[in-house]
Amino acid sequence: AQTVTQSQPEMSVQEAETVTLSCTYDTSENNYYLFWYKQPPSRQMILVIRQEAYKQQNATENRFSVNFQKAAKSFSLKISDSQLGDTAMYFCAFIKDNAGNMLTFGGGTRLMVKP
Amino acid sequence: DTGVSQDPRHKITKRGQNVTFRCDPISEHNRLYWYRQTLGQGPEFLTYFQNEAQLEKSRLLSDRFSAERPKGSFSTLEIQRTEQGDSAMYLCASSSGTSGGITDTQYFGPGTRLTVL
Lengths: 115, 117
Prior knowledge:
A: mainly beta; four-stranded antiparallel β-sheet; B: mainly beta; seven-stranded mixed β-sheet; 11 strands; 0% helix; globular
């Protein structure tokens, strides 16, 4: 079974600053995908970024980038130039490759962006 | 494309009553998932459909829970004899089910928040 751990229950950052959210996972699989989802207050969960485990290059999406360390089973999210709209719960999630269908989520990190 | 929709958004019920939730996936998505999210926690997988076939169920899905996806379109999740421990957000997600064994991205609906009194 896979487990995903987010060790930072809450974080805060000043607007325009950079923040990094941590995620570690445990699996015996070699092929898998990792995701960061954002869940704003009272709004639905949306995908922020995804990473294929077989790709060495770290994924980036505009102000969002990841640091994927496969050997260490670490998958952190960096948010650059933080905006007030980035305030949300952030969930790290894991799924096996090859028709895997069950996302395994971490417990989440609540991020507050301060003006 | 209107995204995943869920109905109702909120449901308050008394212990022992039955409730049913509906999920409409993104058009032409053939995979549909149900998750449960308790306050302050990450979502937990409940069950998964490929078209109309229910292919996987979590041990969290007790015999009081039943899910269906007739005709491979919308899905319903029914909870019978609700208990206070059933209070949670019930999330639905869908994915396109791309071929070749490539895992595809799940898109989530807004959820149904259930409160059992």
